[in-house]
Amino acid sequence: MPQHQRFDNIGAFLEALDRAGELRTVSDPVSPVLEISRYTDAESKSPGGGKALLFRKVKGSEFPVATNLFGSDKRICMALGVDRIDDLAERLRALITMKPPKGLRDMLHLLPTALQVTSFFPRRFKGKTAPCQEVVYLGNEADLRRLPVLHCWPKDGGPFITLPLVFTKSLVNGIRNVGMYRMQVYDARTTGMHWHIHKDGSSNFSEYRKAGKRMPVAVAIGADPATIYAATAPMPRHADELLLAGFIRKHPVTLTPCLTVDLEVPAEAEFVIEGTVDPEEMRIEGPFGDHTGYYSLADLYPVFRVTAITHRRRPVYCATLVGKPPMEDCYLAKVTERLFLPLLQTVFPEIVNYWLPWEGVFHNIVVVAIEKAYPLHAQKIMSGLWGQGQMSFCKAIVVVDADVDPTDGRKVMAVLLKNLDVESDITVNRGILDALDHSSPTPHYGHKIGIDLTRRISGEPPRAKMRTSAGRTIGPEAVAAGFSAIDGVFRWRELALSEREGCRRVVLVSVEKPGNRSGKWYAERLLSEERLSEIDLFVLYDTSIELTDNSLVLWKLFNNTDPGRDLVIREGRAVVDACRKDASDGHLRQWPEELSFEE
Ligand SMILES: Cc1cc2nc3c(=O)[nH]c(=O)nc-3n(C[C@H](O)[C@H](O)[C@H](O)COP(=O)(O)O)c2cc1C
């Protein structure tokens, strides 16, 4: 076996996982309604992401189901044929920073790379019948109910296809797009099409809508692993994701024409669903448990009508479960984080590294380290990132200096406690948000926060002076009495650094929020209480939150706050409200429920 095997389909990948001891097979009959998802949730939450799961007997369907295929560092590296995801990023960097040849020697040197590039482009399947079309159902014969589509969470709006590769084409220039957008199964031949408004599938759909034309769509389930990943990658509009898959595989993706629509799909797919989306038909989609850890709210989305279903002779239905991180999709997102760093650095060479922690569920926070060169350089990076592709969904951007490792959460927190001056380090802005964001009072847009933790340089005004512990006059008993004096404060915990000298004091506070008490109500009291006047930053949580669970408090902070509404800054001190919101906070749309298997 070569050191890194290239997988052309899911069958080959499953075999390799089995050989590597990375596959757990479940042979007892299981239900696609909540049972497979419970198994998958427990497995993916076990240390290191557990094993991939293959359910051989699924009630109500003749097809086996595979989940958690990519949900560990080892499996995602196996899937993409690398030892470390950073190796892929380095290959990409070498390619995009290639210098023009100066002579024959250089030319010869470049030849292997040039030849490799030609292998990135997808190719046509040459045989008689593509594997994905070994079995064909057309028209009324095409029945989605034969597929073991999962019902994932108890309060989901129904079953949905969780790992679909949705192929569309621009009506304007014919360029292909593949994106992963969940598809709620309404009945035998109808699904929802949950491409968010900011995504390329939706942009292609807008072109058809404008032209009043029915849009051809083809959906592959299961393909070679690199193509599955590529469908999730935030490639620029009109850049073909299959080129990225070819680059990762060092081998082209093989495509075959669909039978009922003018599109091509991976010949090695397990299933293909062909159909069309009517430009005017919309239907309520959701709610569904989502990777935010909440049920994403039901909303109107386009409807996909099936014209054909084709599959391999013995297909495996590939699925995933999204929920509170870390889950399988975090490993897919990690590939994007690493792979897109060299691309981002072509636009912002001063970016040394960055990190999108799981607690931020991909779009809520990015910590970025820069080689700072001039006043307000950090603000330039914030503005730039807020305008870059899907990075523009990012709600919070924290900028640190190049000598701080942005992937080390403890170090970043230490820099924050040492440096943060809420009056001068914070920029609050407005912009687009991921469709899944629930914290903003308005869907699809809201407030963003930039936090500049870089050292001040010549030309920038200094930060406000830090109070040292020697300068403190209020003892711990008085602080405790100060919290007790505020009606509704339930518990509190001060974030401690080993070295407290010259640090901001940050306290997590759990508070009861009956209908009439907003975050601002608490902010007013906390900031006015004399005995709490040496606390610099308060973060409010619902009483159900365990304040000692660092991951939980960060997840709640990034998910639940709209920085424009939920941040109060006064005279160098601040309160952030990370509680759930309701009308008393001015939040008039629905607040989603947190995911749980307990009904
Ligand atoms: C498991 C999984 C499910 C996803 N579901 C959706 C979805 O339902 N809608 C959506 O717009 N994006 C979804 N995404 C994110 C998109 O796949 C991702 O943003 C991708 O870059 C979109 O492709 P596009 O830029 O070509 O539109 C999902 C990602 C994963 C990993």
Automatic annotation (TrEMBL):
Residue stretches making up the 3-octaprenyl-4-hydroxybenzoate carboxy-lyase-like Rift-related domain: 126-325
GO cellular component: cytosol
An example Gene Ontology molecular-function term: 4-hydroxy-3-polyprenylbenzoate decarboxylase activity
Domain 3-octaprenyl-4-hydroxybenzoate carboxy-lyase-like C-terminal, first and last residues per copy: 330-452, 496-572
Top-level taxon of origin: Bacteria
Domain called 3-octaprenyl-4-hydroxybenzoate carboxy-lyase-like N-terminal: residue spans: 14-92
InterPro entries: HBDC (IPR022390), UbiD (IPR002830), UbiD-like_C (IPR049381), UbiD-like_N (IPR049383), UbiD_Rift_dom (IPR048304)
Annotated SUPFAM superfamilies: FMN-binding split barrel (SSF50475), UbiD C-terminal domain-like (SSF143968)
One of the GO BP terms on file: ubiquinone biosynthetic process
NCBIfam families listed in its UniProt record: mena_SCO4490, UbiD family decarboxylase
Similarity-based family: Belongs to the UbiD family.
Protein name: Menaquinone biosynthesis decarboxylase
Annotated source species: Desulfatirhabdium butyrativorans
